[in-house]
Amino acid sequence: MVNSETDLYLLSNKSGNSYIIPESKQTDFFIISTEILSEEDQKEFIQLLNKIEIVQSSYPIDPYSLKSKENLLFF
After folding, report:
1. DSSP label at residue 64
2. What does the DSSP 8-state code read for residue 51?
3. pLDDT given for residue 37 in this prediction
4. C-alpha radius of gyration, the chain, whole number
5. What is d(CA 20, CA 69) in angstroms, rounded to the nearest whole number?
6. Domain hosting residue 64, numbered range
7. Structure confidence by residue, pLDDT tens digits, 3-52
8. Domain count of the chain?
9. Which residues of 21-54 are buried (b: 16+ CB within 10 A; e: fewer)?
10. What is residue 5's predicted lDDT score, i.e. its pLDDT?
């Protein structure tokens, strides 16, 4: 599972009247990891998130595939 020394950040996609990642308007929040997770760890983490009652869905996003990836540079 995720290393206990890995920092995770919860980032709201909405900022005022705009979106941090406008091509993902359906996404309310992003979880950003300071470490690269293995596919196995990523899959396990997503399964754990999806077990939380208030989480409707979670899925991985490749930040390099985003048109507005530069908006995440502050991490």
Report:
1. G
2. T
3. 86
4. 13
5. 9
6. 8-68
7. 567 888 999 999 899 999 999 999 999 998 888 888 999 999 999 999 99
8. 1
9. beeeeebeebeebeeebeeebeeebbeeeeeeee
10. 77
Residue 54 structure tokens: 């208030």
Rounded Cα distance, 12 and 61, in Å: 15
Given a cut of 70, whether residue 1 has pLDDT beyond it is no
* In contact, 59 and 43? CB cutoff 8 Å: no
Give the contacts of 54 (CB within 8 A, at least 6 positions apart).
Answer: none
- From the list 8, 3, 65, the residue with the least C-alpha distance to 32 is 8
Whether residue 24 lies inside any domain: the answer is yes
Do the domain assignments include residue 2? Answer: no
pLDDT of residue 63: 86
Say how far apart CA 48 and CA 61 lie, in whole Å.
17
